[in-house]
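A.,

Following up on our hallway conversation. Structure tokens first:
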């Protein structure tokens, strides 16, 4: 699976405006559905690791390369619903998530977390705008 989840070690505050902007953006790109969460799934073969500031990067690849036969789109919920629907997800996500093909939300049990050896994630924001112009070449 090619997705890394980055969990905060401590709870951070967000304001209602941030939540509203995120929901609006999700609705604009998901046919009006303003959320994109799946009901919690078992951990299966995945391992949750914690990172420390003084470790070197040692990437691993646990990718599942088995082909899937599912060609149907997966759904968070049915049309018109405003919360995640476990039944709709079970009907449409199975060939992806049950096989470990796609990332699923998991219940992180902190007592079972492994000490990892990945670099610490840092975040940097700046206000410099960048533009790309497609000239057709």
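Then the amino acids I'd put at each of the 137 positions:
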């Amino acid at each position: 699976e090619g997705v890394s989840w980055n969990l905060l070690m401590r709870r951070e505050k967000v304001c209602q405006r941030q939540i509203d902007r995120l929901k609006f953006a999700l609705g604009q790109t998901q046919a009006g559905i303003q959320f994109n969460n799946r009901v919690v799934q078992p951990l299966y073969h995945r391992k949750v690791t914690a990172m420390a500031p003084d470790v070197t990067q040692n990437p691993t690849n646990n990718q599942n390369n088995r082909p899937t036969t599912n060609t149907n789109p997966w759904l968070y919920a049915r049309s018109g619903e405003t919360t995640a629907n476990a039944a709709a997800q079970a009907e449409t996500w199975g060939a992806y998530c049950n096989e470990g093909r796609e990332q699923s939300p998991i219940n992180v049990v902190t007592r079972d977390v492994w000490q990892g050896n990945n670099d610490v994630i840092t975040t940097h924001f700046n206000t410099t705008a960048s533009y790309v112009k497609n000239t057709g070449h």
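The longest helix spans residues 16-29. Curious whether your intuition agrees with the design.

B.
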